[in-house]
Amino acid sequence: MSWVLGDGRQGRAAGGNAPDVFQNSYAFLRKYGDKNLLLDLNGQAKAGNLSLKGFRNGLEKAGDIDGKLLGVPVGANTFALFYNPDVFKKAGVTVEDGWTWNDFFAAAKKVRKSDGTLCGASDNANVMYLYDLYLRQNGKAFFTKDSKLGFTEDDLTEWWGRWQRHAKTDELVPGKKSEQAKPKASISADLSASEFTWDNFLVRFAAETKTTLDLGPIPTTDGKRTGQYLSSLMLSGFARTQHPKEVAQFIDFMTHDPEVGEVMGYNRGIPATNSQYDAYRPQGVDAKIAAYEKSVSAELEPITPHPAGADNTGGPGDSLLADAAADRPGGGRPRGLCGRGGAPGSRLTRVPPAPGAMGDGCPDATTSWKTVELEGPQVLGPGVEAAWVSTNATAQYGLAAIQNLALVGDKLPGWPRGHGSDDT
Questions:
Q1: Is pTM beyond 0.85 here?
Q2: What pLDDT, on a 0 to 100 scale, did the predictor assign at position 34?
Q3: Separation between Cα atoms, residue 140 and residue 130, nearest integer Å
Q4: What is the pLDDT of residues 379-418, one digit of tens each?
Q5: Lowest mean pLDDT: which of 102-111, 325-334, 408-417?
Q6: Separation CA 31–CA 322 (nearest Å)
Q7: Which of left, alpha, beta for 370 (phi over 0: left; psi -120 to 50: alpha)?
Q8: How far is the first Cα of the chain from the last one, in angstroms, to the nearest whole number?
Q9: What is the pLDDT of residue 416?
Q10: What span, in angstroms and rounded, lies between the C-alpha atoms of 157 and 172?
Q11: Is the pLDDT of residue 288 over 90?
Q12: What pLDDT score does 3 carry?
């Protein structure tokens, strides 16, 4: 259970060599469900090997795709505004429920004027999940129930244009500075006073900066609806496992056992079941996350199933906003974390690697190869993170090389007999 299907090991799964149980996420369910790689756990639940009782906020339905139970959540998170309370107070800004996008951008402007060292906000115009909330506030969604894009080019132009106007007045962190700060986020690199992302990132940010950060409500369009939902990290079973009963029992243990909840804490998000939620007593930043999710629980809505291919994104600030990026008001690629995607109204397509990327998962010589040391509570054991390496791209690149050698190896000069395509 040490990897997810999205780590470049789809080929192993398709070849029948996947683990019996693996970590999964909501964005992958339909993609791998459509490929018949995920075990439908409904049968095991009916047989009594997996309990779907005691889940918080209806999360027992989170892995239900077209009537099949393809995953069981072990934790859940929602989006939040991260902000520097000291800087906001100095600027005379109050973050409160029901505030609007106009209020948010006015706050960013005040912060920028009152503090000459910080931008009012990070430029999150290209964050898919944030744009999804804005669309939901306006009666739409990033994806429709029939797996199509739920917005038009005019919708996207309006959203980007709004952020661009504030970027031009120096209220938002410039894209170049955000790139230079990686692997840190703009807010944890002390470049901005506010930023939108998943609430559990508070654990990471607390380890990256000494600045105190708080979680605040998502701005609204009408002063009421935030459009928020819970997104879940899950455990799934391999469809061709020879041990479906044991798979279900293991998932049941990992999601319900109180001691597991105590050990894991919020490592995979706030525990999905009441038994584990009650067993863990959050402290420090975990307590802030718990208080935030409790404060927005009444506003949470059902999540729209992601279509196959929606996982083709680039990281915590995943963006599927795309090829239309070059047409963003003001010209050029949009700032922020825009990764891969498709132009509004078109099929989803891949964007060529960003400058500095070689296409094999590693940067070229012009990119910083700096690594970051990580330790608890971010990770279970101390280690070093190389955020500039794409494990998915590296794995796919290596797999392609192996496949090519297998196909043409016997045509290469000096290739040893027995290793060609005819003998494999």
A1: no
A2: 85
A3: 13
A4: 555 667 776 676 666 776 677 777 677 766 666 776 655 5
A5: 325-334
A6: 19
A7: beta
A8: 29
A9: 59
A10: 18
A11: yes
A12: 46
When pLDDT is cut at 50, 70 and 90, the band that residue 335 belongs to is: very low
Residue 333 is encoded by which pair of tokens?
């690629």
Q: What's residue 27's pLDDT?
A: 78
Residue 229 has pLDDT above 70, yes or no: yes
Report yes or no: 75 and 83 within 8 Å, Cβ to Cβ: no
